[in-house]
Amino acid sequence: MISRVGVAVRFQVLGPMTATVALPSAAQPRRLLAVLLAQAGQFVGRDTLVDELWPDGAPASAAAIVQVTVSKLRKTLSPGLGAAEAGQRLRSGPRGYALAVEPGELDADDFLTLLSAGADDRAQRRRALERALACWRGDAFADVAGGPLLEAHKLWLEDRRSAALLQLVELELADGDGRSVVERLDPVVAARPADERFAARLASALGAVGRRESALEVLRRTRRALWEEAGVWPGADLVAVYRRIAGTEWTTPGPPAQLPPAVPDFTGRAAELADVARALRGPAPVVLHGAAGSGKSALAVQAAWRARRRFPDGQLAASLRGPDGTPADPAAVLTGFLRLLGATPAELADRAGLTGLWRSYTADRRLLVLLEDAASETQVRALLPSGPGCATLVTARRSLPGLCGARPVPVAELSTKDAWALLAAIAGEPRLRAEPEATQRLLGRCAGLALAVRIAGVKLAARPDRRVAELAARLADDRRRLDELTAGDLGVRAAVTSALRERSASEVSLLRLLAAFAGPVPDWCAAALLDRPLDEARDRLDALAAAHLLTPAGTRWAVHPFARLVLAESAPARHDEGALRRACEVALALAEHVRGRPAPGSRKPDPAALRRVTADPAGWTAEETGHLAAAVRLAGAHGWHELTGQLADACTALAGTPWLGHAARAVSVLGLAAARRRRDPHAEAEKLFDLGSVHWQHGRWQQARKYFVMAEHRYRLLEDPRGTGAVLAALADIHLDDGDPRTAEAQLREAIDLLRDCGDRRGQAAAAAQLGSLAEDVGDVRRAVESFEVSMLLARECDDGRGHDQAAKRYADVLRRQGEADQAGDLLAGALGGAVRTGERHWEAHVLRSLGDLHAEAGELADAHRRLTRSLALFEEIGHRHAAAYTHRSLAEARRRAGDPAGARRHLRTALGVFRELGDRRGAGYALLGLGRTQADEGAGPEAARLLGTSADLFRELGFPLWELRALRELNAVTSESPARDRTREVLTKIKI
Predict the structure, then answer these.
(1) Beta bridge partners of 491
(2) 382-399 b/e with 16+ CB inside 10 Å = b?
(3) How many angstroms separate the CA atoms of 33 and 377, rounded?
(4) Residue 2: CB atoms within 10 Å
C-alpha cells in the first residue's frame, strides 16, 4: 500500500470525471488520471499506460510523453511536492506509477462499500442500496475514452451498478412498493429494451399497480428488441411473467427459421465473411462460388446466422440440387417457401401463379433466403424475393453472371493459416504443434480444399494414437490419396466427380488432356490439344475456370489437383494420344523458333502464339521452360523417342546454366534414354554431360564426377575435341574442390589445347578464366593475372559479352584480394551491366556478391549490405542453395566489420551447414575462417585458435596455400605458439607473386 498523502482531494468517476482540484482539460492527462484512478493504490506499468493512451498504436515518443504527463499531474495533485517527497500522491516505482487515494476520496469506493453494507437487515439493505445508487451521476468515466484496461473497469462498475439496481427493485417488489420500481425502471427499460431482467421486473411492477396494458406493451417491446438486436426469442422467465399478467400462454413460434445448423468448428474466412456481411445489406443476390469441397455451404450458413437478426420476418433455406444430383424444380421450392409464410392450400394450388404469389408475400417482408447448390441463373431467378428489405445468399460452382446485379464472392482455397486452424479445431492444436513439419506436409496434400482438410482432421480425431506424419505419408501417394480422403459420407472423390458430371464430354476430355502435363499449361498448348485457334481455346479454358476446375494464372492454366486425380482414374479416350503428340510437337516448334533453328516439316503453331514468341523470346523462354520439361516427360512416357530427344535438347538449351529447376535431372535422364534408344552416341555424350552439370549445380559432387567421366569417355571415342574440352573443364572444378589442384590444372591445360585446336575460342576463354582462379588458389598470383587477361582477350575476340563479363568478375575477385579495388570495381560494374541486360539473374547475383565484398572491404557497409541482401534474395528465388551459402559468408564478413558479431555468426553457421551438407570443403574452410575471425574480435582466443587452425588444415589438404596463409595469419594474431609461425614461413615459400 502507498503511504498517506498530504492534501485531501475528492475524486468522482461515477459520471463525468471531476475532482476538488482543477483537473487538466486535455484528453491525454485526463485519460492517464482515469487509468490510475481505476487502479487506485496499485502500480500501473509504463507499457500498460502506453497501451491505454494509444490503443491504436503508440508513437515512438510515447514513453517520454507519459513521463511528462505524469509530471504535470503531480503538480496538479500534489502542488509544491517533489516526486520522491513524503506526501506525494502520484508516486513512481520500478513497476510504474501509482496514485494514492485515501478512504472517502473516491466515489467508486464509496459505492462499493455501500453495496456490501446492511446484509443482515432488509430495511438497512434497501437503504444502503439506495445510497449506493445515489453515488452515480451518469455512466462511469462518462467523458473519458479509454483503452482496454479502463473500458474493462467501466464495464465492471456498470455491472455492479446493474446488480445493485436489480437487488433494490427485488426488495421493493417484495415489500409491495411497485410504484418505486416503476419510477426506477421505466427510464432504464426505455434505454435498454432488450434487457430481459429489468423488463420482467418492470412488467411485474406495472401489473402490481394495475397497469396491465402497459405491462404487456413492455413485454411486447422487449420481444421485438430481442429479435432485432440478438435474433433470439424471450426466455422462460419473461414468458412466465407474460403468462401471469395476460392470463394466457405467450406463444413464440415466430417467423420461419430454416437455416441449417452452423458448423461448430468453423474457422477462418474472415475476409469472405466481411464481404458477405456488407453485400447482404442490399437486395442484390450474393453468390458464393468456388470449387467442389471448397466450403461454400459452411461459409454461407455461417454468414447467414450472423446476419439473421436483421431479418425478423424469417429465414428460408433450400437445396437446389436433388438427391440424385439433378437440379431441383424451382416451383417445388417456391411451394415450400410460401407454405411456411402462411399461404393457403387454395393459393398454392395455382402453380402458374406461384411466382406472383411469392412476390406479393415478400414485397413488405424482411426475409433472408439461402439457396444452396444452384446450377443456373434460371433456377435462382425464380426464387428471388421482391422486397427491398430481403436478401438472398446463393452457393454455386459458378459466379452466375447472368443474375442482374448479383454480388459474386469467390471462395478460394484455404490459406495455410486458415487450413491449420480448421485442422486444429477438429484434431486438436497440441497434436499439430507436436508435429509442425508433418502438419505442413499434410496440409500441402490437402491443397487448400476445405473438405480435404476436414476429412483429414476427422481421421486424426478418430485415431488419437495415429501420428500426423503417418497420415501425411499416406496422402503423399497420388494413387491412394482419394481413397484416404474419405470419411463416412464425406469424400473428395464424390464431390469432384459431381462437379465433373456437370460438364460436357468435350470439356472433361480437355481437362484430362491438360492434366496429363501435371502442371500449369499455356493457352497455346490448349489450342494445340484442341487443334483450334488460340481465341477459341481461351474461351474453353475460361468456361472451365469459371467452374473452378481450372486455376488461371495469366496465360497459363492448371487443373485443380483433386480434379487431376479423379481424371487419372478414368481411361483415356482414343483420340487423346494424337492430341498430346500434337501439343508436344507444337512445343518443340516454338522452342526451336526461339533458338533460331526451325525444323523443316515441323508442326505449325498458332500464328498468335508464334507472334508472342517473336516479340519476346527471352520472356517466353523464362515462362515456358517448365512446360517444355513436362512435354519431355510426356513424350518419354509415350515412347516417342525422337521427339523426346529433340524436346530435351531444346529444353536444356533454353534453360541455360545453371538449370536448378526440379525437372532438370528428369529431362536429362529422359534425353539420355532417348539417345540410347536411337543409338545416337553424340547425343548420349551430350546428355551425360548435361546430367553431370545438373548434379554439379546441386552440389552432388560424386554423381557429377561419374557422369562427367562417362561423357569424357564417349567424347574421346567420338574424337570430339570441343566436347572433350568442355568435360575436362568441368572435371577440373570437381578435382579442385576435392583437393587435387594438380590434376585440375592438367585437365584445364589439356582442355585449352583441345579447344584451341578446334577453334573454340569461347570455350578457351572460359577454361582460361578457370585456370586463373586455380592459379590464385594455389598461390601463383602472377599466373592468375595472366590467365584472366588471356581469358578476357579471347572472349572479346569472339564477341562473347557474357564470357568476357564472367572472366571479368572472377578477375575482379583476385584484384580485390590483391588490393586493386579501383580496377576491380570497374570490372564488376561492367559485368553487372551485362548481367542485367541479358536478364541472367543467377549471374547478376554472383556479381552483386563480389560488389558487396568490395564495398565491405572499403568500409562502405550500407552499400555492401544492400548488394549482398539482393544477391541472397536472387539465389534463394532461383533455388541455388550452394551459391546462397557463399553470399551468407559474405554477409557475415560485412556484419563483422559493422560490429555485429552475433549477426556474423548467424550467417556463417547457415553457410557452414550447407557446405558440410554438400561436401564443399573449400566453402567450409572459408566459413571456419570467418567464424575464427569473429571469435577473435570478441576476445575468445582459444575458440578462435581452434577454428582458425581447422580452417588452415582444410586449405592445406586442398592445396590452397594462399588461403592457408590467410588462416595462419589470423591464427598468429591470437596465439604465440611457434608451430603456427613456423608453418606460416613454410607456406610463404609456396606462394608466387
Answers:
(1) 486
(2) ebbbbbebbbbbbbbbbb
(3) 61
(4) 18
What cell does 231 get? Answer: 435474433
Region 271-295: mean pLDDT is: 93
From CA 604, how far away is CA 622, in angstroms rounded?
22
Distance CA 792, CA 785 (A): 11
* Residue-wise pLDDT tens digits, 508-542: 999 999 999 888 999 999 999 999 999 999 999 99
Q: What is the mean pLDDT of residues 564-591?
A: 87
Q: What is the pLDDT of residue 601?
A: 59
Amino acid at 658: P
The three cell numbers of residue 313 are: 420476418
Q: State the Cα–Cα distance between residues 906 and 920, nearest whole angstrom.
A: 19
Cα–Cα distance measured from residue 870 to residue 988, given in angstroms and rounded to the nearest whole number: 37
Q: Which three cell numbers stand for residue 643?
A: 521427339
Q: Which residues of 739-768 are buried (b: 16+ CB within 10 A; e: fewer)?
A: bbbeebbebbebbbebbbeeebbbbbbbbb
Cβ within 8 Å of residue 114, ≥6 positions away: 128, 129, 131, 132, 135
Distance CA 525, CA 605 (A): 9
- 3-state DSSP assignment of residue 491: strand
| Measured distance CA(757)–CA(774) in Å, rounded | 23
Pairwise CA distance, residues 801 & 797, whole Å: 10
Between CA 445 and CA 473 the distance in angstroms is: 9
Q: At what angle do helices 641-655 and 681-697 cross, to 10 degrees?
A: 40
Cα of 599 vs its chain's centroid, Å: 45
Is the pLDDT score of 227 beyond 80?
no
pLDDT band at 467 (very low <50, low <70, confident <90, very high): very high
What is the edge-to-edge ordering of all strands in the sheet holding 550-553?
521-522, 556-559, 550-553
- Do 630 and 621 touch, CB atoms closer than 8 A? no
Which of 785, 713, 798 is closest to 755 using CA atoms? 798
Average of per-residue pLDDT across 813-841: 84
The DSSP element (H or E) to which 490 belongs, if any, is strand 490-491
Within 8 A by CB and 6+ apart from 903, the residues are 892, 895
Torsion, Cα of 936, 940, 942, 945 (10° steps)? -10
SS in 3 state form for 164-233?
Answer: HHHHHHHHHHHCCCHHHHHHHHHHHHHHCCCCHHHHHHHHHHHHHCCCHHHHHHHHHHHHHHHHHHHCCC
Mode of pairing for the β-strands spanning 407-411 and 391-396: unpaired
919 pLDDT band, cuts 50/70/90, is confident
Strands (E), 258-390: 286-290, 315-319, 368-374
| Helix (H/G/I), strand (E/B), else coil: 844 | helix
Q: What does residue 69 show for φ and ψ, rounded to 5 degrees?
A: -65, -40
Provide the residue type at 232 as one letter.
V
Are 14 and 67 a contacting pair, CB within 8 Å?
no
Does the pLDDT at position 784 exceed 70? yes
The pTM of the full predicted model, rounded to 2 decimals, is: 0.64
For residues 235 and 264, the answer to whether their CB atoms sit within 8 Å is no
State the pLDDT confidence band at 992, using cuts at 50, 70 and 90. Answer: low
Q: Residues, the chain, total?
A: 993
> For residue 113, what is its C-alpha cell?
462499500
d(CA 218, CA 205): 11
Taking only the tens place, the pLDDT of each residue in 696-750 is 877 777 888 999 899 899 999 999 999 998 999 889 888 887 778 889 889 989 9
- The CB-side HSE value for 546 (13 A sphere, CA atoms) comes to 18
* pLDDT mean over 560-589: 87
Q: Using CA atoms, how far apart are residues 325 and 322, in angstroms rounded to an integer?
A: 5
